[in-house]
Design goal:
- It contains ten helices and 42 strands.
- The strands form seven sheets. A 14-stranded mixed beta sheet has the order 27-28-29-30-31-32-33-21-22-23-24-25-26-34, covered by helices on one side. Strands 1, 2, 3, 4, 7 and 8 form a six-stranded antiparallel beta sheet that branches. Strands 35-38-37-36-39-40 form a six-stranded mixed beta sheet.
- Strand 14 and strand 15 form a beta hairpin.
Length: 722
């Protein structure tokens, strides 16, 4: 008996020692200068101080003790974005500067001293906040710490700053890529503004003000505007007067970098965290050439992909497209010209080979012009009416790939060559049936050479890039091929469609003249002009096929569409395995009674195969009162038929079951309900003036999909059922 007790005591001691060891895990690295950087934990963002927050370690394990309560700083989160609080510890020096990054760029709240429950500062801990996409569960956190001696960049001296008219004073030329504006007094503060061009030079920066008593006042910059190759910063010196100032000194010093890779953004989501000190010589954060060892690391590849796959905000391009589908004997050859600048763009498509396809679309921010051949007709909508180009250059730019890689677990499979170009192979299992393989170059401009998307073991999508060029500093392939495939028992593996894009010219970040998109028509062109006011813009919407909700084909659900007669229908496609989808359904559940009072019927459709018992359990646990079904046929085909592009996906119909809004966020629901109600009322008021069309005629023509399509304008459709 004593022996058994002794064994149990030993086991409990070992278990206790194991738990203590687990609790004492740290995620830290020591820089070459001896400074230690530790990422302590992650937490949900909280707006209050009264309730403790849940903290977890970077690997997803629970963190019993909260490092601090609240950082009390604004985050500026947007739709599709969520935020997390981070706790950081830096030891080994008292003189340092710190900056933090994640996959979306620099964090919008820089490390600061946090507070505890008594509103007192917490010694030895720094707090910062990062934003993340809704679909992200892991990310890389990069910490820059600067401890080197400050280096003087520029100095400005004047004995009488207040006696000059700052509107008519210009500083002498600087020996560095920066311009300082004359300081100005604003209330109790003196403000300096500086514009610099070394935007890629990521270093710690500060401005020192020396007053007439030789006292030093220090301030850090606040970004006050950015442009291509430019950044404007402000320095605010409080409780200062112009007449008390003597000189300014601008200084900077370099950062040393630590990366924490595979950091868990959800408690309980376990990850293998990697901690890496980046060689100060390779300047990874500035995108300069790096060693072969670093170039082969997963963190470097993902970082460079995130940097490169950002389509520029403005520019122009000319390119050629070969478009074909499974029935094409010969491809259609199209010549495209595309200019873009925010909402300002010009676009034209002309068929190269003999044919009558000639379309030109223009939008100058105020009016849209559509010109078509061979009808020799042009229509101008005067008013704000933006139209979307059918062959937007961004369609051939695989920016979605980096989002998929950053939000799923990625493995570095090894190295090889494609077309003689050294590359690395990344692979990601995105779901039980979806798999992604990406070959990327090893050069400075890391870019995908080949992308393969699989459904189970069947290739569905293929992207191939050739001749990656640096167009004005932006990497972009000179030629891309995008193909879509299908696989079934009858056809096996077959091509659905493909597009080959050959870029003749690509000029990113160039100015587009405001009047550049004013078209000139041939003399025999008829021009029709419509004036559109924003309040009545819906009266002049171009004719488009109406979508009518007909049935729930291929969906297993206890819901009869006739139950919603005379009511609006809100359909939500979701996936219980995805956090944004679960949030959407639970929010709809909270709004169920209000929606019912507004005559809105809510229906949810589980868009991927899950165990019915697990789905029923989740619905019951979360008190979901509206019908929830699940796709029982081919998921991909059903989602394609319904037009579902992402999850969650909301579809709203009016009381006549005509779809009025798709793909909007739940925060836009009130707005869409209001718009749908006004459109329905407008349709009824104009019914007596409209030509009534019986939709049964269209049914006889074989349009049997759940959406009824016709070329009849929406407001002229009469419901045969009243």
């Amino acid at each position: 008996m004593k022996q058994v007790i002794w064994i149990l005591t030993c086991l409990l001691s070992i278990a206790g020692h194991s738990d203590a060891k687990q609790d004492s895990r740290v995620f830290a690295a020591t820089l070459p200068n001896g400074v230690a950087v530790e990422l302590i934990g992650v937490s949900y963002r909280s707006s209050g101080l009264s309730q403790p927050k849940r903290w977890w370690r970077p690997d997803g394990a629970d963190l019993p003790d909260e490092p601090y309560r609240h950082s009390r700083r604004s985050t500026g989160a947007h739709v599709g974005i969520y935020v997390r609080d981070f706790a950081l510890r830096i030891t080994g020096t008292d003189d340092y500067s710190c900056v933090t990054y994640n996959s979306l760029g620099r964090s919008n709240v820089q490390p600061n001293i946090p507070l505890n429950e008594k509103n007192e500062s917490v010694d030895g801990v720094l707090a910062f906040v990062c934003r993340f996409k809704d679909s992200q569960t892991v990310d890389t956190i990069r910490i820059g710490v600067s401890t080197e001696p400050w280096q003087k960049v520029e100095e400005w001296v004047d004995d009488a700053w207040h006696e000059h008219d700052h509107d008519n004073i210009v500083f002498k030329e600087s020996n560095n890529p920066l311009i300082l504006t004359w300081p100005r007094q604003k209330g109790r503060a003196v403000i300096l503004e500086m514009v610099r061009t070394d935007v890629d030079d990521v270093q710690a920066r500060r401005m020192l003000l020396f007053d007439r008593d030789d006292q030093i006042h220090e301030e850090s910059p606040v970004t006050h505007g950015e442009g291509p190759g430019l950044i404007k910063e402000q320095y605010w010196f409080w409780n200062m007067r112009l007449e008390d100032m003597h000189r300014f000194e601008y200084q900077k010093r370099p950062y040393q970098w630590v990366e924490f890779r595979n950091v868990s953004l959800e408690p309980g989501h376990e990850t293998d965290v990697e901690v890496a000190v980046l060689d100060v010589k390779d300047e990874l954060a500035r995108g300069l050439p790096v060693s072969e060892q670093d170039r082969n690391s997963l963190g470097y590849i993902l970082h460079r992909l995130a940097q490169n796959l950002r389509f520029p905000a403005k520019g122009r391009a000319t390119y050629r497209i070969e478009a074909r589908n499974a029935q094409s004997q010969e491809p259609r050859l199209l010549w495209c010209e595309y200019a873009f600048d925010g909402v300002l763009y010009g676009f034209s498509v002309v068929e190269i080979q003999p044919g009558d396809f000639n379309v030109q679309w223009y939008f100058d921010g105020e009016k849209t012009t559509l010109y078509q051949m061979p009808n020799k007709a042009a229509t101008i909508w005067e008013g704000r009416r933006e139209m979307t180009p059918i062959y937007n250059l961004q369609q051939f730019f695989p920016s979605k790939t980096i989002g998929d890689l950053l939000t799923h677990k990625v493995e570095l499979k090894g190295s090889g060559k494609i077309g003689g170009i050294p590359c690395s192979l990344l692979e990601s299992i995105m779901s039980s049936k979806e798999r992604l393989k990406v070959w990327v170059t090893k050069e400075r401009d890391v870019y995908p050479l080949r992308i393969e998307r699989y459904e189970y073991d069947n290739l569905r999508y293929l992207y191939e890039a050739e001749n990656i060029k640096s167009w004005s500093g932006v990497p972009f392939p000179q030629k891309t091929t995008i193909s879509w495939y299908r696989s079934d028992d009858a056809l096996q593996h077959s091509l659905i469609s493909s597009k080959v894009v050959s870029v003749e010219s690509f000029s990113p970040n160039v100015e587009i003249a405001g009047g550049e998109f004013t078209p000139e028509f041939p003399p025999d062109t008829s021009v029709n002009t419509y004036t559109v006011s924003e309040q009545q813009a819906s009266d002049f919407e171009p004719t488009r096929p109406a979508k009518r909700l007909r049935q729930f084909a291929d969906i297993d659900i206890e819901f009869d569409i006739d139950q919603a007669r005379g009511k609006m229908i809100l359909v939500c496609f979701w996936d219980m395995n995805q956090r944004p989808s679960r949030n959407c359904i639970t929010q709809l559940a909270k709004l169920a009674k209000k929606l019912k009072d507004k005559s809105v019927t809510v229906v949810a459709v589980q868009a991927s195969k899950v165990e019915q018992a697990k789905l029923d359990e989740w619905i019951q646990t979360n008190d979901i009162a509206f019908p929830v079904g699940m796709i029982e046929g081919d998921e991909e085909n059903t989602r394609f038929t319904w037009g579902v592009r992402s999850l969650p996906w909301l579809i709203l119909t009016d009381k006549k079951r005509i779809v009025r809004a798709e793909g909007f966020g739940i925060e836009q629901l009130d707005e869409k309900l209001t718009e749908t109600g006004s459109k329905t009322q407008l349709s009824m008021s104009s019914q007596s003036l409209a030509t009534e069309v019986d939709l049964n005629i269209c049914r006889e023509e074989g349009l049997k999909s759940f959406f009824h399509s016709s070329s009849i304008p929406e407001d002229l459709i009469k419901d045969p059922n009243g």
